[in-house]
Amino acid sequence: MGSGVQIRRINFGLKQKIWTTITIVAVIAIVFGTGLTYYLYEKFYVEKQKETLVMQGVKLQKFYHQALNKEEFKKRVQWTDASSDAKVIFTEDPMVLSAGIPFDELAEKNLITFDERQQLLAGKKVIFIREHPRFHQDILAVTIPLLKKGQLAGALFLYMPLAEIYEPFTSIRIVLTVSLLLLLAVVILLGLKMTNRLIKPLKEMETISQKMSQGDFSKRIEVRQTDEVGNLASSFNTLASSLEAVDHKRREFLQNVSHELRTPLSYMKGYTEAILDGVAGDEKAVRKYVSIIHNETGRMQRLVHDLLDLAQLEDDSYPMRDEPLPFAQLISDVVERFALTAGQKGIKLKQHLDEDIIVNGDSDRLEQVVSNLLDNGIRYTPNEKSIDITLRKEDSYAVLAIHDAGPGISKEDLPKVVDRFYRVDKARSRKEGGTGLGLAIVNQIVRKHHGELTIKSEEGDGTIIAVKLPLYDE
Ligand code: ATP
Ligand code: MG
């Protein structure tokens, strides 16, 4: 047919979608986290160092004005230089001051710009981060002017290589990188586990539903979670089970129907062939064959009729009349119709009916119930015995009990006799014309009348079949 080649579109599956989301979120979180750490470090740590430098500088500036002599001040400067992380330089060389290189004569470039020097001259502090002209490393520096009578007499220069400031941060950076990598690994691992847990049942459902569409209802999903996906999986299993049950029933039904039809059809075929081939012989034999064919046709007709009936009764929307009926009257009408058949077997039909009982229901259907039950009773009761038909009130129910003197039904068979096509003695009931649908129909009708069908039987002591129907109430 040429349709074997399947074009697979590259589709973004659920797994990829979840993965992309997780990855994007993780990357954003990591980038943001790193940025924030750098920013906070810069803001608090570097700022703090700057403040310390300024503080030290301001302290020295104060001391400059208080000091008794220059030597004392220089000592103090040296002491600060030695005892802190900062490098402290003091100069009062007017040359250096005007050249703007207060800390290193050897530098080729001026560290302090012209503008900044103007600021110093105005008595303002100058703070900057800049490359050291000689050591070629970034430094954080604070320059503090020392004024005497409004003149710039000297300057204090405090600085720190930036690398030193950032040094503690390098170790933090390693910890940060390692923990971020670990975090990433955990996110990826958890993500992988989670998506697999999520996707697996869905994938299974997909496979199983494909199998189901091909008629295989036997597969189930293993339910591992209690979340929505788990619930979906167990609902899916329930669905599969009911579909399987329906499928099983359907097959069984078809099997039963074809089995029931096969026997009469083969009889009919055999006898018609015998007649056509002239094997039948004289007219008497032909008549006999035709009568067999007639019987089998009748049997098939009954079967089809009963099946249709049952199908309608099993349909919940099938209408059922609902009117008050004198139940005793209805029963004795049916009993009268069976008088002849019963008489032929010498069976006595004894009625004990409460005439006052009125029930709600469909008279044709209830007649069918009584008729099917009596038919069974007479059919399965030996000659010359009797059948008791009792109708009485029990609470708000009418109870019709038909007690025969037949062979009874064994405990194993009891629950099954109401099933479609179920017959205790297959060969015997076939001979007697039964298809095993009678009690199934009775059960459906009683159910539709909100009643109850109970069968009590002791093997050898006959059977009591009781139909319990709600009494009519205004
Ligand atoms: P039909 O469809 O013609 O009624 P059937 O009588 O075989 O056929 P059911 O009426 O459904 O089918 O009964 C099912 C089976 O239950 C019977 O084949 C029979 O074996 C058993 N059974 C029913 N009623 C009695 C009874 N009163 N005594 C003993 N066995 C019974
Ligand atoms: Mg029957």
Tags for this entry?
3 domains; 11 helices; 474 residues; 11 strands
Précis, in short:
With 474 residues, the protein is an alpha+beta fold.
Helix fraction bin: 55-70%
The fraction of residues in strands falls at 15-25%
Rounded to an integer, what's the Rg over CA atoms?
53 Å
**Poorly predicted sequence stretches spanning 5 or more consecutive residues:** 102-108
Bound molecules: adenosine-5'-triphosphate, magnesium ion
Structural category is alpha+beta
Number of strands: 11
Number of domains: 3
> What can be said about the biggest beta sheet?
5 strands, mixed
Put simply, the count of helices is: 11
Strand order of the largest sheet: 6-8-9-11-10
Just name the CATH architecture of the largest domain.
2-Layer Sandwich
Determine the CATH topology of the largest domain: Beta-Lactamase
Cα(first) to Cα(last) distance is 69 Å
How would you explain this protein's 3D organization?
This protein has three domains: 15-167, 2-Layer Sandwich (Beta-Lactamase); 228-311, Helix Hairpins, CATH 1.10.287; 319-470, 2-Layer Sandwich (Heat Shock Protein 90). A five-stranded mixed sheet has the order 6-8-9-11-10, with helices on one face. Strands 1-4-3-2 form a four-stranded antiparallel sheet, with helices on both faces. 21% of the residues are buried. With 474 residues, it is α+β, with helices and mostly antiparallel strands. Helices cover 57% and strands 16% of the residues. It is built from eleven helices and eleven strands. Bound molecules: adenosine-5'-triphosphate (ATP) and magnesium ion. Adenosine-5'-triphosphate binds at residues 306, 372, 376-377, 380, 404, 406-407, 409, 417, 422-425, 429, 434-440, 463.
